[in-house]
Each structure stands twice: as structure tokens, then as C-alpha cells.
Amino acid sequence: MSNKEIQEQRMKGYFIQATKEILKGEGLKSISVRNISERAGYSYATLYNYFKDVKDLIFECVVDFQDECETFIKSETKKYEPGLIKIKAITKAYIKYFIQYPGIYELFYIEKTTDLAHKQPTVKLIHNFLNKLCEEEWQYCLNNKILNSAEASVMKETLHYAVIGALIIYINRRQPATYKEFSIIVESQLNYILNLA
Predict the structure, then answer these.
(1) To 10 degrees, what angle do helices 54-77 and 3-25 make?
(2) Residues 14-68: pLDDT tens digits?
(3) 3-state DSSP assignment of residue 20
């Protein structure tokens, strides 16, 4: 890699890190070229040397947040045996990650896609994220005839929408009132969806 490429990566990294910090702490509503540039320590004109616009920068952040979330989930679930129990563990870790970072959850699931990015890959990346995290386990269940493809398909969709809905209600409405109550409900719902009751 040439010095110019190294410098470009470094500069992009400053802007990406600044944007991620704003998104984690304050959410998408606080994102502006000026806010990002101030936090990165450079002029807003410099940002345009490395990114087409703020939406391109947000796309980079989505990819980084997904990598961060995936690393967190792997560390939380490494002790679990493959299959439905591991899907449950992955889902619980996924929920835990987003409860820690509600600004990221808001970016992923609350913001209108027109505000997020003009790139379709951003929307697809977000929509398929939980399924991607569990894909190896779903395949394990199919290969070992724990589930047939129709059962797996229904479970995937139900899990996807149940988790997104539960997080929206808890993060935005604080219902139920405590995390402990929320965890009990999540445990019960996951057992029901995955037929682990």
C-alpha cells in the first residue's frame, strides 16, 4: 500500500470514528457534516475529499457496527452447542448489543431508509443482519433434520419481526419497565418461536 493510500485510509478512519461516536451517543438526528468534521478535527470540506456525502459515510458506519455486533455476539455465544439453542443465544446477544447502544438500533430500524442511504445495499445489510448471524445454525438444523425448510423459514421470519418489535417497544417506550422483566418476556418468546418450551 502506498503512502497516499495509507493516508486516505487514516483520514477516512477519523471521519468514520467520529460519525460512529455521534451515532452511538446521540443518534442519526445529530449527524451533520459540521458535527462530524468538528469531532474528527478537520474541516467539513475535507470530508468531501473522502466521501461522496454523509450517506456514504453512514453506510461505512453500518458495516462497522455490524462487524462490532458480530464480534460481541461471537464472544457471548462461543460456549453454546450448535442448533436452536445457539440461535436463541445469538438472538439474546443481539438484543443485548442493541439495548447497550440504542442509537445504533435507531439507525438500523427506526430511521426511514431515505434518511439512511440512497444505496439499496444498506437496507439489505440491515434487514438481513439477524438471519446472517444465525445462518450457520439454521443450516445445521436443516442438515441434521432438526427442522425442515418450511419450518426454518417460518421461524426465521417470526424471530426477525418479533425481535425488532420487542426492541422498539422496550427502547422507545420502556415497556416493560425493567430490563429484568423484558428479559423474562424475551426468554419466553424465544422459547415459543424456536419450539424450546
Answers:
(1) 80
(2) 999 999 999 888 878 888 999 999 999 999 899 999 998 888 888 888 889 999 9
(3) helix
CATH topology of domain 54-193: Tetracycline Repressor; domain 2 (1.10.357)
Let me know: does 119 contact 58? Beta carbons within 8 Å. Answer: no
Q: Domain 1-51 is in which class?
A: mainly alpha
Cell match 444465525: residue? 134
pLDDT digits over 149-168, tens only?
999 999 999 999 999 999 99
Q: Give this prediction's pTM.
A: 0.85
Q: How far apart are the C-alpha atoms of 192 and 197, rounded to whole Å?
A: 6
> How far apart (Å, rounded) are the C-alpha atoms in residues 172 and 193?
23
